[in-house]
Amino acid sequence: MSVLDDIIAGVREDLDVRRQKLSLDEVQTLARQAPAPRDALAALTPRAGGVRVIAEVKRKSPSKGDLSAIQDPAELAAAYERGGAAVISVLTEERRFGGSLADLDAVRAAVDLPLLRKDFTVDEYQIWEARAHGADLILLIVAALDDATLDSFLKLTERLGMHALVETHTPEEVERAVAVGARIIGVNVRNLKTLEIDRSVFAALAGLIPAGAVVVAESGVRDIADVETFVADGAQAVLVGEALVRHSNPELTVGEFARAGSALHH
Ligand SMILES: O=P(O)(O)OC[C@@H](O)[C@@H](O)c1c[nH]c2ccccc12
User: Fold this and answer.
1) Model's pTM, two decimal places?
2) Fewer beta carbons within 10 angstroms: which end of the chain, N or C?
3) Ligand 1 atom 9: residue of nearest CA
4) Count of domains for the chain
5) Cβ atoms 67, 242 nearer than 8 A
6) What ipTM did this prediction achieve?
7) Ligand 1 pocket mutation pick from 218, 226, 227, 230 by most atoms within 8 angstroms of CB
8) pLDDT along the chain (266 residues), means of 10
9) Distance (Å, rounded) from C-alpha 158 to C-alpha 219?
10) Residue 17 sits in a domain of what CATH number?
11) Range of the domain at 39
């Protein structure tokens, strides 16, 4: 069983527990009562001379273990916002990433930016749940979904006024993302089946993404030089977790990353 399969098995178990407490019907009602979604696509659409930063609240990961004892996710997200993040990502997967919907709620209450609920979406319930908790963007990992499911999840997401970051790691997955009409396409340079990072995957795949879709480089950003490389290879946005949560001044670092991209356009 790959790491991805293993993570998804846990996600499904945890989801069954939540569904016992709150039915799909009840979550749908909460989603319909939630304040209107913010436009994550607009927030990620490139401006002249700048890379958009999606700054992630990430406590731990299966590859690295504990990353940061984040005492106050709301305070961290507020620092990201002050630093110039375009979107805040909040991991909600519990077992491997130490996240929760409580973290998402805390961040929602603290910032005005669009929020990405970062999880392994394998059930329609999670999409309604994301909206009920104030998310504006969800993650759809192509490797975890068949074509029909990917298509129906993307349609439901957009019907609820949200957008999807459609994550890929191979040329075939980019093709599948494009085929369902994804408007925000991420290239994760970490292979979720082996957890290995290969930054060269970004350049190889970015060129396959048609103009009109927002191109996001995900994972493996260590420093300004990495941001510059991804931007030079076609990234319009970068998704950064570890480098921000480990830094003593995340606000400053978000700003540096956002500017690192823009320097290349002058
Ligand atoms: O911490 P990093 O290397 O900056 O990576 C952030 C983000 O890309 C990573 O958390 C991620 C990308 N795709 C995912 C899918 C599930 C969980 C996590 C992820």
Assistant:
1) 0.97
2) C
3) 219
4) 1
5) yes
6) 0.97
7) 218
8) 94 98 98 98 86 97 90 97 98 97 98 98 98 98 98 98 98 98 98 94 98 97 97 97 95 95 57
9) 25
10) 3.20.20.70
11) 3-263
